[in-house]
Amino acid sequence: MSVQPVHRDQAGDGERVPRTIDGIAGALTASRRMEFYRQLGTAPLEQAEAVLRHWWCEAMLDTDPDGDRITVATLDGTLPLASVQSVLARRQARGLPVE
User: Fold this and answer.
1) Most buried of 43, 64, 77, 89, CB within 10 angstroms?
2) CB-CB contact of 94 with 13 (8 Å)
3) pLDDT for the residue 41
């Protein structure tokens, strides 16, 4: 299994999509926003954070300025990949969660 690197916003001052309910909702299309709110609203409290993480990832993908290029490279088989082990090691080195 391989993963894509996460790109920061162009200004370099954080992520394109704030890690908040409003930030995530604002980055999604209307139909996806309704599904986000539905899932968040019906999730048990102990699963709410997982729902937010999932939809934040979706919002980041939806707003990626390189999204079309990445899609083409994926379909062409030319997308550079990283191993899960290397990503986990990099996250651990930065003190980030690896759950």
Assistant:
1) 64
2) no
3) 97
